[in-house]
């Protein structure tokens, strides 16, 4: 990929709210309680820690909070896509309560930034935060009732498409207002709310007024002084139209780590992202700890691809790591596992060099 192509990736700046490296923090419900985040859990993400666990410098500069499921485990992909039992008002309220609780995930992140700021002698540092907007799934016929609304359906096959659209607007407006009010009340002095994130990873032409809904949501978000982000999956419907749809910044998923694809998937995704003016997502999960090294090699395809295809430079990137893989690597006594954390740090900081397993 030549220099002119490299420059077509989405670069950090105003459209990304100044964020360069956006870490995905999944804070929904898991039976293992992995989605509960405490101050100490955040430390190896907001700062690079040495092998004794001491912060050395700032690390990821953006935090995206998002969730698959609430405690009710509704929906095939929970807050993203339903299966006839989609997420409802109860799930949306649960997520707001968990995220903004007195000892919730944002409060714990705020404590972590405050503590690390003191350790790094950098008072006044603020972490940029992005919060998800659950998807008003079109298969949901019984979302619940807001004050004076009556029962709300998003299912255009059961109610008129215009009515389903208005119901979605009503719920999205309620959710965004709740989110902004709770943010203001929480007084998170070490955090800066920068953007909201559209949870559904594709925009389907088959859903009536879907594009209009996204544009309308963008206007609400811009009125609040925030940016609007999206991370579609590989070859998702309408991924290349992200600007037309109204998103300020978008990152494309290679989905190489989770599929039976070779290293060439990274090249193909990089080309797609560059042509669409998007950033790229780096993906890993706990299988990278496997003894045979197969998934560690897959992860290296992402990092090495950054060097080969140009997205290791000044490019907006998202980072998926299951729930807490990189923290597990940071504190792991096995040097091979710890190396996953160190390599990721070098990639973020622009000092990574090609590595082979």
UniProtKB/TrEMBL annotation:
Q: Which domain of life is it from?
A: Bacteria
Q: Which InterPro entries match?
A: DUF4855
What Pfam families has UniProt attached to this entry? DUF4855 (PF16147)
What this protein is called in its record is: DUF4855 domain-containing protein
Q: Which organism is it from?
A: Paenibacillus mendelii
């Amino acid at each position: 990929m030549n220099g002119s192509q490299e420059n077509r990736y989405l670069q950090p700046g105003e459209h990304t709210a100044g964020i360069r490296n956006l870490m995905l923090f999944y804070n929904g419900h898991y039976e293992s309680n992995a989605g509960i985040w405490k101050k100490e859990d955040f430390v190896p993400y907001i700062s690079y820690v040495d092998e004794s666990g001491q912060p050395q410098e700032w690390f990821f500069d953006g935090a995206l909070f998002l969730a698959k499921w609430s405690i009710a485990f509704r929906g095939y992909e929970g807050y993203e896509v339903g299966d006839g039992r989609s997420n409802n008002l109860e799930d949306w309220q649960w997520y707001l309560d968990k995220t903004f609780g007195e000892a919730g995930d944002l409060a714990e992140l705020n404590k972590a930034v405050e503590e690390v700021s003191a350790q790094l002698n950098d008072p006044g540092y603020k972490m940029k935060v992005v919060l998800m907007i659950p998807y008003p799934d079109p298969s949901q016929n019984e979302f619940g009732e807001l004050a004076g609304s009556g029962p709300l359906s998003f299912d255009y096959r059961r109610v008129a498409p215009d009515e389903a659209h208005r119901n979605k607007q009503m719920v999205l407006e309620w959710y965004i207002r709740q989110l902004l009010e709770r943010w203001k009340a929480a007084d998170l002095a070490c955090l800066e709310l920068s953007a909201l994130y559209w949870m559904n990873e594709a925009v389907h032409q088959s859903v009536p007024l879907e594009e209009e809904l996204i544009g309308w949501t963008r206007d609400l978000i811009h009125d609040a002084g925030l940016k609007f982000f999206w991370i579609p999956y590989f070859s998702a419907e309408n991924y290349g139209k992200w600007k037309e749809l109204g998103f300020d910044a978008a990152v494309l998923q290679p989905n190489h780590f989770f599929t039976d694809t070779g290293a060439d998937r990274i090249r193909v995704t990089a080309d797609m992202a560059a042509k669409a003016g998007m950033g790229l997502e780096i993906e890993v999960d706990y299988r990278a700890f496997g003894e045979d090294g197969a998934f560690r090699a897959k992860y290296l395809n992402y990092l090495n691809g950054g060097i080969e295809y140009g997205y290791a430079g000044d490019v907006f990137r998202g980072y998926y790591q299951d729930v807490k893989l990189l923290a597990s690597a940071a504190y792991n006594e096995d040097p091979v596992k710890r190396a996953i954390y160190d390599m990721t740090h070098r990639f973020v900081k622009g000092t990574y060099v090609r590595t082979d397993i």
